[in-house]
Amino acid sequence: MRALSIIAGLVVLLASYLALQEPSSSGPWLPGQSRIATTDISGRTLSISNVRDFTYAPGSAAIVDERYLDKTYKLDELQRVWFGLSHFGPYGLAHSFLSFEFASGDNLVLSLEARMRPGQNYSPTLGVLRRYTKIYVMATERDVIGLRSHHRGERVLLYPVVDYGESSPEAFLRSFLNDINKLAEAPEFYNTLLDNCLTNLLKNTAQGEELGFTDLRVLLPGRSDRLTYAFGATPDSMPFETARAMATIQPALTTTQEREFSTKIRCGWTSLLPELADICGALPAQHQTGAP
N or C: which end of the chain has fewer CB within 10 A? Predict the structure, then answer.
């Protein structure tokens, strides 16, 4: 009984300590997280400030050029949403993100991340202990995806969202915009279990209401493509492992500086999306299917 009392006391002390912590927007921050994105919609035009478009050194993740853009997007040109997953460690450690594809050729990435200071490294444990605030990084694909697939050497998967339920690509995008602007005004803590890159995506979907956050596919984001497959949000008309192979980005196909970067990282989906054939059709068959 004494041991249980001690444990209970420690839990109460820890909970009290965490409750006293307050998130701060004061820097310094890591270079890729130094600026907060803000959004505005006027009519059918979406304007976003601080869209990240960094350039990295070949063969490394060293930043060569820190560039932020102010960009506009026509909502009428929004065609499709893509679900991305980047495996950065063992035991299901992965980062999930979304990319919004526009007919103009623009692809806008939305990535919820733990905002870190110089010298900090990401730790799931520290993420529970309120050691990070959260940040919505809005960026180009060659930045967020290329950083992970081409410069860090992570295994990155990119799935087209094919079923929005009663929603639409535009409604899906709009569901995040208020959160993005609120976070720019008042910082919030990142939480590895309850408020992370995946749970934030799920809370803006109807399927999120059907899940408990004890589900391993939620607790271990590296399994989350099994979740989107099970719900039919990403292609489920073929075996799961086939879909995963099609989604796997092949860094050998392109460089982050190439104009066709965003098309070539999708070449695994030519059988589902014929419009990719003009650029992907000349590539070896194993690259078109996403096979390693």
Answer: N
Domain borders along the chain are 20-236
Q: State the Cα–Cα distance between residues 163 and 134, nearest whole angstrom.
A: 28
Closest CA to 85 of 284, 183, 229: 229
- Residues 23 and 189 sit within 8 Å (Cβ to Cβ): yes
Other Cβ atoms less than 10 A from the Cβ of 32: the count is: 21
Distance CA 36, CA 13 (A): 33
Given this model, what pLDDT does residue 292 score? Answer: 41
User: Coil, strand, or helix at residue 70?
Assistant: strand
State the Cα–Cα distance between residues 158 and 237, nearest whole angstrom. Answer: 16
**What is the reported pTM?**
0.86
Tokens of 242: 């086939």
Helix runs in the chain, H state only: 2-20, 124-128, 141-146, 169-185, 197-202, 216-219, 224-230, 240-247, 261-264, 277-280, 285-288
**What is the separation of C-alpha 154 from the centre of its chain, rounded to a whole number of angstroms?**
14
Tokens of 187: 């910082």
> Which residues have C-beta within 8 Å of that of residue 237, sequence separation ≥ 6?
none
Q: How far from the centroid of its chain's Cα atoms is residue 78's Cα?
A: 18
Distance CA 101, CA 110 (A): 11
Q: How far apart are CA 58 and CA 105, in angstroms?
A: 24
CA distance 204 to 173: 9
Spatial CA neighbour of 81 closest among 96, 92, 68? 96
Stretches where the chain sits below pLDDT 70 are 1-22, 91, 193-221, 282-292
CA angle, 125 then 129 then 132, to 5°? 90
Phi and psi torsions of 172, nearest 5°: -65, -45
